[in-house]
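Reviewers of the previous submission asked for a worked example of the structure-prediction workflow described in the proposal, so we include one complete record here. The input consisted solely of the amino acid sequence. No template or homolog information was supplied to the procedure at any stage.
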Amino acid sequence: MTTRGPAELLFIIPAYNEEAALPGVLDELAGAYPDADVVVIDDGSVDATAAVARVGGAVVLQLPYNLGIGGALRTGFRYAVRKGYQRAVQFDADGQHHPDEVPALLAALDAGADMAVGSRFSDGQPGYRVGRLRKAAMGVLTITMRRIAGRHFSDTSSGFRAFSRPVLEFFADTYPAEYMESVEALFSTVRAGYEVVEVPVQMRGRALGAPSNRTWRLVYHYLRLFVVLLAAAPRRKRATPPPAGATAPSEAAS
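From that input alone, the workflow returned the following C-alpha cells.
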C-alpha cells in the first residue's frame, strides 16, 4: 500500500496469529485516530494476520519466522525511527487496549516524560484480574524493580506504552528479544536516565483468539527474568581495609 507518512503518531502492533481480533482493533484505531499511522509486525503468523492487517489499512512488516514479541517490537521501533516518527504507542493486537486511554499516555509525553506506561493497577482498582501465579510473580517483580532501580512501578509488565523520539531511538538498538521483555525494557530505560511515568488505564480482557504461552512457559520466563534483573543490579563495593600499620585519618590529625 502507499503510505502518506509520517503522521504525528504511529501505533506499533506486534501480532502473532491474530486474524480474529486484529480487524476489530484496527477499526477502533481508525475511528479514534484517523490521522495516525499503524504498523503491524506479523511475527511469523501461520494464519491470515498479514492479510487482515492490510485490509484494515495498516502497513505490514512480515517476519519470516516467529521471533517473539521482543523481536517484533524492535522491528517496529526501527521502522518508526527510519520513517521519522516523533512518538509512538505500543498497542496490543488482541483487543485488550482501548483507544480511549491513549490520550492519557500522550499527555504524559506532553508533560515531559520520555516514556509513559499504562498501568492496570496504579489507581488501586481491582478491575483487571490476573491469575494467582501471575499476580504473585508480578508482585515480586514490582519489589525487585524498586530495589534495583529505585523506582516503584505498579505494572511492570504492561504492554500499553507511549514513547518519545529519544526512547524510540534507544529501543531500535537495545530492545530485549526474550519474552517478558517489557520488564527488562522498563529497567533499562530507567537505568539509562530516561523519565518514565505510569498512567492509570483501564484494560479489557482478550477479545478473540488465544494466548500464546502456557503456565509452565510463564514460570520459566519469570525465573529467567528474575535472574537477568538480579545480574544487572548494581553491586555495592566492599570497603577496602587500610594497609597494615597505616595511620587512621583521625589519628594523623591529632
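Strands lie at 10-15, 37-43, 59-63, 87-90, 115-119, 161-164, 196-200. We consider this example representative of the routine output the project will generate in years two and three.
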